Amino acid sequence: NLLLSEVEKFEIQSTEQLENFRLDFISRNSKLSTLFDEFKTVPKEQKRTLGQQINVLKQAAEAKFRTKKQEIEDAQDATQGTDLDITLPSSYETLGSLHPVSQVRDEIIQIFERIGFNLSEGPEIELDWYNFTALNFPENHPAREMQDTFFIEKDPDILLRTHTSPVQVRVMKNQKPPIRTLSVGRVFRNETISARSHCMFHQIEGLYVNEGVSFAQLKQTLLYFAKEFFGQHAKIRLRPSYFPFTEPSAEVDVYLGTKTESDYRLTKGTGWLEILGCGMVHPNVLENVNIDSKKYNGFAFGMGIERIALLRYDIPDIRMLFENEMRFLRQF
Ligand code: PHE
């Protein structure tokens, strides 16, 4: 009983005191274990009562030790937490986003995939034959100068492709009609860099080869695209043009109406804007890739992705798309 009140009174406020308590009442050489040793020598008839008392004492000591230990640990946690200001905003990693050119590219691909076009890709470093000759550009013809080419090697001529049409040449060489393909990728032209043009940009070109393909189908396909991409109010207009690989050829303008009609903000609020080139595949091109031009014909169209992105996002200068300025990119 004396020991029991000693256990109850023992003051425990610190880890040190807790340890002293443990040494006094719980450890191997504590007062309690001495008591156990004495217990063995006690006469039989006293054992029962004494045993019970020792047990009560033991449990009391252990219970006190456990509670105090917990109290001290909790208090330590609380003080360690004082330099943590839970009212501060948490830090977080900002997620990246797709580049506007990639976003526009993906959207255009999806629109044409819905009407059965598949995707094709090819090398950026190309042989002259795929980039020019197969596409009906005559040797030493001024038409080649339309494209301001970066040459890598002469004889055989190796160059940076000036358009994605060589990808379509590769597809036509390897597949049998019907062919519905979209060629997507980076192209290069030796042009002076300005707000409107760059020496590196991206194109998407479509090609459809089958029996009995008509110009009306081409026009309807492009109208479908314009409405899907720019909104149902969009109109298109075809102007006669020239490309060596298509005959007849046309340039396509899109009319997006006034700013109130349009879903998109435009630098020029009204009027017609040129967005792509197109035409019926020249029979010479089909023959160059061993497709019978008496049996098959086709249409093709091509557009610059940057030009469309500038239109959609009302970006005043194409160079902004390549500078990787974070304040610009974060807006998309
Ligand atoms: N390849 C042409 C260009 O780079 C675009 C085009 C593709 C025109 C298909 C007509 C038909 O300008």
Structure description:
Helix content is 39%, strand content 21%. It is α+β, with helices and mostly antiparallel strands and 332 residues long. The strands form 2 sheets. It has a 7-stranded mixed sheet, sandwiched between helices. It starts with a helix and ends with a helix. The model is unreliable at 260-267 (pLDDT under 50). Bound molecules: phenylalanine. Residues 163, 165, 205, 243, 246, 277-279, 300-302 line the site of phenylalanine. Residues 163, 165, 205, 243, 246, 277-279, 300-302 line the site of phenylalanine (PHE).
Descriptive labels:
332 residues; alpha+beta; 7-stranded mixed β-sheet; 3-stranded antiparallel β-sheet; 11 helices; 39% helix; binds phenylalanine
Short summary of the structure?
Helix content is 39%, strand content 21%.
Helix and strand arrangement:
Elements: H1 2-9, H2 15-25, H3 31-41, H4 44-80, H5 100-113, E1 118-120, E2 125-127, H6 128-131, E3 151-153, E4 158-160, H7 165-174, E5 179-188, E6 200-210, H8 215-230, E7 235-243, E8 246-255, E9 272-281, H9 283-288, E10 297-304, H10 305-313, H11 326-329
Parallel strand pairs: 1-5
Antiparallel strand pairs: 2-4, 3-4, 5-6, 6-10, 7-8, 8-9, 9-10
Helix pairs in contact: 1-4, 2-4, 3-4, 5-10
This protein binds phenylalanine.
Domain Aminoacyl-transfer RNA synthetases class-II family profile: 102-323
Main location: cytoplasm
InterPro entries: aa-tRNA-synth_II, aa-tRNA-synth_II/BPL/LPL, Phe-tRNA-synth_IIc_asu, Phe-tRNA_ligase_II_N, Phe_tRNA_ligase_alpha1_bac, Phenylalanyl-tRNA_Synthase, tRNA-bd_arm
